[in-house]
Here is the input.
Amino acid sequence: MDWSSVNCFVDSLTTPQENQPFEEWFDEHWKTHRLRCRNAAMNNYVLQQSVATFKKSQPPPSEEKMKRYISSLCLRVGLEPTEYIEMSWPTFKKKCQEATDL
Here is the structure.
């Protein structure tokens, strides 16, 4: 891991209140940062796993089959499947198209 993600976190920190304990100040920032990073990681995980499955499938799976697979991944990591598919389907299709153009 490089330092760019750490630098982004540091840039988001606010000045602690006078006499504010370190752990209290840190937790105010870290909880939000951790949740956002975790959510981004879950989304990325589902996308990467889905594209990898598409790439290794011969013949390519149907849209319906891929949506069922993506839904199962979402449930496994704790994402809402319908919302994920609505938001990420265009990105998934683009990544799969790029993979088939190679």
Notes: The chain has a mean pLDDT of 93.
